[in-house]
Write a structure and sequence with these properties.
267 residues, alpha/beta, Rossmann fold, Helicase, Ruva Protein, domain 3, seven-stranded mixed β-sheet, two-stranded antiparallel ribbon, 9 strands, 19% strand
Length: 267
Amino acid sequence: MQHQAKKRFGQNFLVDTNIIQQIVDGIQPQQNDLMVEIGPGLGAMTRPLLARLQQLNVIELDRDIIPKLVKNCIFTDPGNKHKLIVNEADVLKFDFSSFYAAQKKSDKQLRIVGNLPYNISTPVLFHLLNYRDIIQDMHFMLQKEVVDRIVATPGNKLYGRLSVMLQSFFHTQFLFEVPPFAFEPAPKVNSAILRLQPDSQYEASIKNFSLYETLVRQAFSQRRKTIKNTLKNICSVANIEQANLSISQRAEELSVKDFVNLYRTIN
């Protein structure tokens, strides 16, 4: 069944079977996992995932592609008809908490996977941050530059708000690169696989998520300026010094631990 990729959905369909197998092997799906795939498209990853799972929920916004996804998955194995559950929805509006509460596998946390469209990848990651307490892990295909930003360390020019926010709550891991020719149509950029596993070391310290997010966003709002200037509406010089930081430092020099310590002085 042919399907024309839609630019407005940022669709690039994964077609390289070796890469697909490498991704699924990296995810290591277990039969009774509570797994959700975001943006399954035509089912390139959905089919091999279904082969290893008792059930798979998918979230797909493009209503034109859903019948083709279902046909592609069931044609190869009619038994998938009872294993595949399609949620026609916008992932940015999807309530994972309500979805999780409705599941029978209450002892299982969510395992989330997907080939995220480049145009919404960052908003999706921030949306999922809100549900970190019910997530076991996440594996995403993203633009390589985005993955590089997520795993970047202080002092690196790619290190920024996205790095700090995700590393504050997740262990981030760059798994491997995916070349453009693995897709149809081929994107103009390289992709990479990212693994995110919840890390609770700072969870108890960050009681006001909104304030912490504001602090980090404001710190990186003008990268060339010092934190004394970018944070003058949030932190005093005394707050900065109390966190054992220098007023002459820039946001990109601060570690995640530094940001958490600074937050604790203003909360």
